[in-house]
Structures are given as C-alpha cells and as structure tokens.
Amino acid sequence: MQPCRFGAVILVLLSAWHVLLAAEAHAIGASEPGKEPVVDAGPCLSASEARDADKVLTECGALIDNTKVAKSDRINALIARASIFITRGEPDRAIADYDVALQLDPSLANILNARGELYRKKGDRPKALADFAAALRLNPDHASARSNYHTLAVELERLGAQMAVAGRPSFNCATARRPVEKAICADPELANLDREIDGSQARVVREAAGPAAARALQREQDAFIAQRNAEFGRAGYDLKKAMQDRLRRLNGADGY
To answer: Which GO terms describe its biological process (predicted)?
Structure first.
C-alpha cells in the first residue's frame, strides 16, 4: 500500500477519536465520593493532536495499561499508539495494538481494514484477506475494505495460476525429444524462462503493427529456437544466458 494512502486512513481514525476524547476530557471533574477517580484522557489527546510521538507513547501508553480506564479511551489510545508504530516502521507492534483494540470491540471495521493493510504490507496475504472480508461483513459499504479485498483476491488468483505452471516450459515434456528440450524440462529455472519467452513472444506478435511486422517477429523467434537447438551442447554455449538475452530482447529495456 502507498504511504500517503495509509496515512489518510490513520488521519480518519484519529480525527474521529479526537472528537470523542475531547468531549470525554471536557466532562472530567472531581470524582464522586465512593467512586473510582476518573482518568484524564486529555494528555493522550493533546499528544496525538500535536503529533508528539514520544508523548503519545507515554501518555497513551498509561491509558492502555490502566484496566480502570474506560474502554473507549483505551481503544482510542491504542489507535493513537499504533499510528506512531506505523510511522516508525514497526508494523508488528501496531498490529498488536490493533489486536487488543479488536478484543475490546470486535465491531471496529476501520481497524480490521487497517490491520489487514499492515498484514498485506508484511506479505501475509491470507490474514490480510480475512481482515478485509471481516470488515466488509461488518460494513458492506466500506469502500476501502471492498477495494482492498478485490485487489488482493485478484492478486492471489494470479499467484495461484503462476504456481500451477511453475517449473513447466511452454511445451510438453512428455514428448520432448531434443537434448536441449530435455535439459529445459530437467531445470525448473530454464523451464520458467522458456514459458516466459513463449508468453512474451505471443504478446509482441499480438501487438505488432500489422501482419508483416508479426511475421518478422515470428521469424526472429524461429531463428532463436533453431540456433538454440543447434548450439546446445557445444563448448562455450550458455543456454541460460541465451534464454535470458532472448527474454530481455522481447521485453525491452523496461521489462515489458
């Protein structure tokens, strides 16, 4: 996820929290006899508004660790502290704070979505997808969660398709007869290169500027295959390098 987008999510969470804490802090006064003293959430609110990371960790941390603090104040303090951990590049600690917030209130769709984004950034796609789905169950109109779920589901589908053909060349190894084809079938890296070359060749032919250009591209590919078949096994011939060079030529300097 892009940093600016994630920062916008955090600002939305914090702005809602600031309004709530301001109202609660205003109502704080002397405690009634026989009742627990009211914990002042004001310093945590002020630290968050001032973007003072050290004070957020201290003041909001004091609220989080105090079990006598109102649940809403603890949740908001957890959100504020998590935002600091995110800006400091500590996603695991931010996730831990989101975990506690969700234990206190499992209905927080925004937090589920935010935690899912952290999981996705860490590369834990299954947990990310589960969080996005849970956020949508709570709020089917959650635009960010819907977008995140869709893009991640497409990504997982693409990765699954790639895994299904990983280590397989573009041709049927069961009918391979040439020594070079058998060598490609025996080496997953070479097999993947062969499949990528075949896919890139199909693309450039499809995108060619007319039939004549397409035929010229196909002749170039046929010449590469013929040279590969003839030179494989000869001293100094590097099959892997030849295939990598061919793929770079097809994809161009920009990789596509």
So the answer is: receptor-mediated virion attachment to host cell
Q: List, in sequence order, every beta strand (DSSP E) within 100-156.
A: none
Token representation of residue 173: 């190894």
Rounded CA gap, 110 and 133, in Å? 12
**For 166, which DSSP code?**
T
Closest CA to 79 of 135, 10, 142, 31: 10
Length of the chain: 256
Q: Where exactly does CATH 1.25.40.10 map onto the chain?
A: 3-162
Q: Which helix (H) or strand (E) holds 80?
A: helix 71-87
pTM attached to this predicted model: 0.54
Q: How far apart are CA 220 and CA 214, in angstroms?
A: 10
> What separation in angstroms does the CA of 168 have from each of 184, 215, 232?
9, 27, 20
Of 253, 231, 252, 6, residue with least CA distance to 117? 6
- Rounded CA gap, 37 and 148, in Å? 43
Half-sphere exposure (Cβ direction) of 129: Cα atoms closer than 13 Å: 12
Q: Tokens 């500590």 belong to which residue?
A: 90
Q: Which token pair is 172?
A: 């049927």
Q: Convert the pLDDT of each residue in 194-215 to its tens digit.
A: 988 988 999 889 988 889 999 9
Give the CATH class of 3-162: mainly alpha
In degrees, to the nearest 5, what angle opens at C-alpha 16 toward C-alphas 142 and 13?
55
